[in-house]
Amino acid sequence: MRAVALALLGPTASGKSALAQRLAERLALEIVSVDSGQVYRGMDIGTAKPDAAEQRRVPHHLIDMVEPTESYSAGRFRADAIAAVTDILARGRLPLLVGGTMLYYRALAQGIDELPAADAGTRAEIDREAARVGWPALHAQLARVDPPSARRLEPNDAQRIQRALEVFRTTGKPLSALHTAPRQPLPFALTGCALIPADRAQLHRRIAERFDRMLELGLVDELRSLRRRHALDPARPSMRSVGYRQVWGFLEGAYGEREMRDKALAATRQLAKRQLTWLRAMPCDAVLDPLAPDAWERFCGLAQAFAAEGRAA
């Protein structure tokens, strides 16, 4: 029997981090982040990164991996996550993968294709086009050359539209046609638990409360400090993160604080919608409503069964 890792996946503001922290303090768990924002150093408030006290109580992995001027890919995440989980299992502890970056989790669970490396010149060219005609127009362009990729992307999903067009322009082949390479199996089994709130309005209230708390903690000043310390621009993957992207516009004087908040909440709600769409499409071993009164008891029961299975392995 292969060793087992548990994954707790959910949309932003669904309470997955609190559930994970509470469980990790009960069982011999270590948390492996599945969050594309928490990999960046200094981006703490806007990614709801665990603070120093939380990290002292429970070991965390795959946070603070790179500077916000660098890129971090799904392929690198898969390699790093496999290494982290393997190390945790070797020390007789149980790995708990926690996050909402579904692209990362899919790369881990299903493998990832061998794709061409990033081409800075082509990306810059696409960014200039987007500034001139907008991302929906580039999404329409993608639909003409790579319909399957366009169908799975929202018209404003800038980062993924850019990547799909970049692959087509540099290889002459659609990205969807490259998803054919044999994939390496994981050295451990994955048990996935999806957090899917039944009450969308309550999730939206939590999203608003969460962002307001980030503002109170100093999100605007955090981004000011990052801009002073690093050569950042809004096209970098780190600065495309929800929240940071809207605060960037505010710091540039494009709109006021109220509009910044409204834009951030709208973008976060859209992110949660995309995350839920991914979750519903992915095979998971259990589905829980994190906002239900019995969420903790149900999750704890699942985790204890997982722990027993992991020890048996």
**In whole angstroms, how far apart are the ends?**
6 Å
CATH architectural category of the largest domain:
3-Layer(aba) Sandwich
What's the SSE pattern?
EHEHEHEHHHHHEHHHHEH
Residue ranges: pLDDT <50 for 5 or more in a row? none
CATH topology of the largest domain: Rossmann fold
Shape: globular
Q: Which structural class fits the helix and strand makeup?
A: alpha/beta
Integer average pLDDT:
91
Q: Note the total helix count.
A: 13
**Domain count:** 2
Q: What is the β-strand count?
A: 6
Share in β-strands: 5-15%
**The top level CATH class name of the largest domain:** Alpha Beta
Largest sheet: 6 strands, parallel
Spatial order of strands in the largest sheet: 3-2-4-1-5-6
Question: How large is the radius of gyration?
Answer: 20 Å
Structure description:
The chain is an alpha/beta fold and 313 residues long. The protein has two domains: 4-112 and 183-312, Rossmann fold (3-Layer(aba) Sandwich), CATH 3.40.50.300; 120-178, Histone, subunit A (Orthogonal Bundle). It has 13 helices and six strands. It has a six-stranded parallel β-sheet, with helices on both faces. The radius of gyration is 20 Å and the shape is globular.
